[in-house]
Amino acid sequence: MYLVVVGVNHRTAPVDVREKLSFSEHRLGEAFAKLKSYPTIDGVVILSTCNRTEVYVAALEIDNGLKAVREFLANWAGLSLSEIKNYTYNYTLYDAVHHLFRVASGLDSMILGETQILGQVRDAYIKASSFKASNKILNTLFQHAITVGKKVRTETGIDKNPVSVSYAAVQLACSFFGSLRDKKALLIGAGKMSNLTAKHLSYYGIEEIIVTNRSFDKAETFARQFNGTAIPFEKIYDILLEVDVVISCTGAPHLIIHKDRLEPIVKKRVKPLYLIDIAVPRDIDPEITNLPNVLLHDIDKLQNVVTKNLEERKRLAEMAENIIEKELKAFIEWHSSQFVIPTIVALKKKAEEIKNKELTKALNKLGNVSEREKNIVCALAHGIINQMLHTPIVQLKQYALTPQGHLYTEIFQNIFNLQVEGERPKASLPHLEEMEDDNDERSYCGESR
Length: 449
Prior knowledge:
CATH superfamily of the largest domain: Glutamyl-tRNA reductase, N-terminal domain
Number of helices: 16
Radius of gyration: 31 Å
Number of domains: 3
């Protein structure tokens, strides 16, 4: 059984192509059924997110597996095969394993080290299992990938440092107060950045989100998404007496909060006021930093935090790659055994059948021999077989631990004409030189490691 993945992501295709290659939950069953109708495909897992779609299959043959997945994707998306090849990347064998481990660890994401992808990998595996679309190889692969993703985050902490402005803003507020669970936040603006900020505030358990916008209807619609409250834009200064955090991101060409209007409010407040200005041009008067009990961060401060954290994530990503390499080796050892053990069993079985057949012929020709003589002949045949098979079996076990182990096993099966249960005899095999320096599409294309 061979691992094959064909995928598309934010680096290889525009959003209009990714949309065509996406899989809604209500059509997953249909997709699994169509993929498994191909004779070469034994198991399937589909990972579909807003930035990527990847089809993982366990195939009886590599080339036919790739061909089947590409044909399926072309039919599904209404694209030509040439378009599928242009927009997608593919990995096979242990490159496919390495790729999934990096995906689950957040090393292949648009935002390096992001956390959400691990849950999406887990969900993809659970859904495939619920439709009985997966198989033993893919089950083990995805379980291992989920473990690797958790291990990378636990041992490196790569997801701890915010690398988006909205996330950095909330993290700074959280660090300032220690906890946001008893805090109130005012969001000025109802655009995309404010939406992301509100999601992060909700994640960190903010007690209440208050939203204001020049369009009150838009503010109300926005607030409902987060069980918040909308206030008219002209009430900003009134609410500043109550809130703990203010995060402003509007497209206004002028200041929204002025020092002279905020100063009398600050004098009435007992608790500190934390302001974060994400807007360009700025929404909040920079002179406010001179007021007591007020802390203000602007977009430059946030961007410095993001840049510093991104550099740290890149450093931690190197640690993560080392973890992945170790886990890849462990998976290779397990996966190789799935090839080599049945092959060794088939070889020993065939040798035993040949030995017994030839012994019967020899003993019949010898005629009336004593039990001692019969035992000597049997021991001779047994010894010859064991010694002849010892070195090939030892070598095969060693080759099985290399990235080309499955190919050596396949050659071994063909040399001895073995019929291994659950596998098809192969019509042709690559030469050893090609195995050592395989630069065709079997390795990978579309993305670099």
